[in-house]
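Researcher: Let's continue the batch. This sequence belongs to Alpha/beta hydrolase, and it's 287 residues. Same format as the previous ones, please.
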Amino acid sequence: MTPTTLAEAETAWSSVFGDGRLPLGRLRRNLDAMMSETPVPSSVPVASDTIADVPCLRVGTGTRTLVWFHGGGYVMGSPHGYRAAAATLSAALDAQVLLPDYRLAPEHPFPAAFDDATAVLTALGSADTLIAGGDSAGGGLALAATIAARDRGAAVPSAVLAVSPLADFTASGDSFTTNVGTDPVISTRALRGLAASYLRGHDPRDPRVSPLFAGFHDLPPILFLASDREALRDDAVRMHATARAAGNRGALSIHPDACHAWTLFADLPQARRALAEMTDFVNGALP
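Model: Same format as before. Here are the structure tokens for Alpha/beta hydrolase:
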């Protein structure tokens, strides 16, 4: 059943993780199953593609291109599971959505996901109609890849959308403590587990894995969205403050009645409101 209330959405998230001791293969299947409960409209084209040797799915049509990096803590998630979410984004943003199938840990630890993300953005090059975005780990990955492109002097997207971005592997935000009882997805303990799989001892303050610690100068407009109830709220809040201090024309939207990555549940009224914000932001950011 596709969630239509916040309680149902949180129950859906809880069903993915079970008792917290499920093997990774089961977690991956659970996440894709939850994501696939919403059907993809038959009128929406879905096609396989390869960009810079990275397998991708192209979903929908439009005058823009949105590269959307899926969530899943760098260990779960897939373009297949994100097809319905991509179809919703495509219709709202007038964009063909490109879903990179970046490599996952622990089979492929850092920098595999980062390398795949930067390769895709680099291959797409410069376009006024190019947007980058993602949710959770995908939001952090979209930011890290965009920042890396800027640092290389390469073309960057015209706008970035970061939903509940996982952007600080040190878990230093106050919301990890204040929201410990209201987030069924992310916790300090869970983040340590993800770090063990993805980072394998790599510095968690490296901006390529924790863009919170990057410079935000000379970047395209960034829209940060987060729930007031989630552990990652302060990742978005602090990055937005840094970006604004650097002159970024972006925005921050904190939703008090949402959960982690709530935009994935298209039938939630809260998701529709967030999607409208994303649409207005992109329309204002792009030429």
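Researcher: Any comment?
Model: The chain has one domain: 6-285.
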